Structure formats: structure tokens, C-alpha cells
Amino acid sequence: MGLLSLHMLIYLNLVCCGAFSQAESQTQCSPSTTKKHTELSRPPSLGGSWYSPSCEIQPGPQFVLRHYQFSKSSKDFSIIRYYYSDEFCREPAYSIKGEGTISPGTPSWYLSEATDADVQLTKLTVTPYKADVAVVLGGFIQQGCHGFSEVKDVFSYQSSLELNASDYTCLQSLSFSVNELLVLRQVNYYKRKGNYNVMDSTKTAESLDTGRRSRHRKSRRQLSLAGRELFLGNGVWFSQLDRPSSYQLPLYSYEHKDCEACSCIDKASVDNPPMECDGGHQYSGSARVNLTGHWSSAACESVPYSLFTLRSLDFNEVDGTYNIKTTYYTDNYCTLPSFTLTATGYLVSEKSFARLQNTRSYQLIFSKLSVGVLSETMAKLLSMGDTSRCGHITNWQLGEMHDVTNTGGCDALNIAIRDSQYTLIKSGIDSSKSEYMIMSEMKPMESAFNTEVTNFTPKLIKCKAEIISYASFKTQKLTQSLSSQASTHSISGFLILGVMSLLQ
């Protein structure tokens, strides 16, 4: 099995949130795949404060605002995670503050454009903001943290408690980790100072020769800093020995034009947590929107093992039919395609999800899965594999789509077709008046209502330029295909890379 195939096999059992730069969010049918006037800062200049641009939905689901501070030397850090009872981060529940040291090192050999770092947590403080939350946290601490098993009341309402930062069992009991700091990627954004013909750059300074470096420096003098984004590793649930292999949604610097929550978070503290910071909340729509139409990734999204995706979805809410297409890339800007997956089928609406507004559960059923290769490397990989287990294709050609439904998927990509899946779909209108959709990870139907939702994917934006009408979206051929089959199929939970990522 090749290295890429092995990575995919590992990925099948992982859950991740994709990451994308919100600075590129737009309502066009095709997301931007290049960044104007940007520069990768390597090693990253961490000094200063970094903020969540809006209330984040993290695994659980948990609702979080982050405030991370680094010393000017980038050697010391102080991070605060504020946890909330509601999805708009208006009702603070508790906070966890961690302090320690960080040593950015060499460029990551595994995660694109990242810098590896060594991290040491030296201090940990927990502060509850509600009496009932204090009781719950106290139970976790008594069970998982050494030295507190005999304490009747761990702490009282609005009092802080310092814990042993080196007690890994204690950290696990609080679902807290600083593993996200093990990989760092900083991108600086610049704006024109005048009417200069400034070159666009998405390449690192290391890739420039001497002459190009000179032109780059001259170009930079014609620009002023407009904001910075800090991408940290995704996967806070990993063990202490694991380094993340994808990025979270980025933290923003204070001056970032799209960070409406920065000022609110900056004025807050552990004793006075941020509230009403949802002025720029990307999920603050008050009404569920019509899902019928064409949806597209807001920007290039990060998925595990240094892969990146762009997704599009055509959906008809009347009959529940859809077509999903995901293209995988090997670079952060989604300009180097590797392969494409498309899936067709339909969704069956189940019921509302109480913990999130405008959210419903769905049964996800697939009828057809196709694979296409977009790079010579992937074409060779699939051509060398067992063709009887991947559409019976003996010679994969670039750009050609092949149906792999009749072979139960594609073993080379670890794609298997099994039973129905369960997912959540949340929709609304964001602060830029764009209609958005986010979807949860897929779960087998038999366990759908017995397990917590642990992950949501980056948002899809409804394409205003090409909204598909009910009449034009009739899928008569799909319906005929479904009725002619003896049974319907859907993509299994085993296929997190193949099709769950289609919905990321």
C-alpha cells in the first residue's frame, strides 16, 4: 500500500474540522483560491494577541471563544478558552486558562506550510461562571485530578482553581490540551498604500531567489499590514505524542478587518468573560433558509494529512435529491488538484436538533459514487491497485470520472458502500447577509441518537449568482435509477475520507 493510501486509511478513523480563511468568505459560485498581497511568516511572529473572529462550534458540540497571547520573544504563552452554554457565546459557563512556554522549531515535514513547535504547559486555572457548572466541573476534577478525590466541594461559584498542569489524566478529564500549538502557520495580509501595481504573492520568502527577494521587498514597502491569521493544529483530542495533521479555523489579530469579536474579547478577562460578541457571528442567522440551490466552500479547506478540499453541493429540498462534489488538493490554496469524488442520492429529514437553532437531523442515502483523478501520481496509484475493487478500471486517465458503485467503492481510497448515515444540517444567514449551511460528521443510523455530535465541517455558502430553481433541479434520471435498483445504498461511516469529507 502506498504512503498516500496508508494515510487515507489512518484518516478514516479520525474526526476533524476543516479549516479555512474567513477572509476569503464570499457568495460567488467559485471560491477564491489565491490570496492577494499575502505572505507566509516562517518562522511565525507570534508576539501579541490572537482572537476567535466569532463564536466557534467545537467538538461536543461546545461553544468557545479563544484569546491567545504570546510574548514578544514568542517564547511564553497565555491562552484562555471561554466556554458557553449557547451557540452565540452569550451565556458564559466556565473558562480554562493555560500558561507555559513554546519553542517554534523547524518547518513541518508533514503539514503543509506549518512550523513545528515544542510546548510545555506550566499552569492551569479553571473558573466556573455558573453554580451548576461548578458542580459538574468539580465532579470531573475529583475523578480525574490527583489530590482532589477527598475534597467535598472542589470550588464555589465564580472562584478559580489552579490545577497541576503536568497531570495528563486531569487534563483529559477536562478535555483540555495544548496540542494545537504543536504546529503553527501564520499568514500576513497587506493592503495597498496607494495606486501601486503591487505584485501578488502566495509563496514563501524561502522560495524567492535573490532578484525576486529584492522585488518582493520593494513591493512590501508599497503595502501596509491589514491583518494576520494564525492557523493552529486541529485535533485537541489526540494524545500528547500526536502532532495534528490539519488546521483549525484561524485566530485573527486585533487589526484584522473581519474580526468584529476581537475588541469584545480583548476587553474581557477571566473574572469578566466576554459577552455579546456575536456582532460578526457567522452562525447568527435567526431563520432557517431554503436549502434548495447551489452551495460552495467559502474557501480552501484543510483536512487531515496535509490535504485540502473545495466542495460544492446541489440540493433540492422538495424531493431531497442532491449531488455533492469534492476536489482534493495538495496545497493550502487549492491550486494543485489530486482527485475528485462525486456522490448522488437523497436526504430524508428526521427531526429538529434541540441544542442548535435551525438545525435538523437527516438520514443520508447515496445512490452513486464516482471517482476522478486529476494528477499523474494519483492516476498511477489507482492503476496499480486492485481494479476489481475500484470500478474495474485498469487505466486511470486524468479528468475521467468512473462509477465505483458496482464494486462497493474503491479499496485504493478506502471507500466502502454500506448502510444509511445520520447527519445534522444547520442553516442560516451570516453577518454579511450570505446564506450558509454547515453539516455534522456522519454516523451510522443505528447509533445516531445514542451518541453526541462531535464535529461540524466548515460552512458552505449559497451561490447567489447561480441559485438553482426547483424546475431546473428535477432529477428524473436519478429517480429512475433509484427505482430500478433492488436496494439503495449509502456511504458507510468507515468512509470518512471519501464521502464524509464531501460534506466537510
Structure characterization notes:
The protein has 504 residues and is mostly beta strands. It is 13% helix and 34% strand. The protein contains eight helices and 25 strands. The strands form three sheets. The protein has an eight-stranded antiparallel barrel with strand order 2-4-5-6-7-9-10-11. An eight-stranded antiparallel β-barrel has the order 12-14-15-16-17-21-22-24. A three-stranded antiparallel sheet has the order 19-20-25. The longest helix has 14 residues, at 131-144. The chain is globular. It starts with a helix and ends with a helix.
Q: How many helices in DSSP terms?
A: 8
Task: From the alpha carbons, calculate the radius of gyration and give it in angstroms.
Answer: 23 Å
E-strand count: 25
Shape: globular
Strand content: 25-35%
Low-confidence stretches: 1-18, 20-27, 195-213, 280-285, 447-451, 465-504
Helical coverage, percent range: 10-25%
Mean pLDDT rating: 76
Give the class from helix and strand content and strand pairing.
mainly beta
Oligomer: single chain
Question: Within the largest sheet, what's the order of strands?
Answer: 2-4-5-6-7-9-10-11
Largest sheet: 8 strands, antiparallel, barrel
The end-to-end span amounts to 26 Å
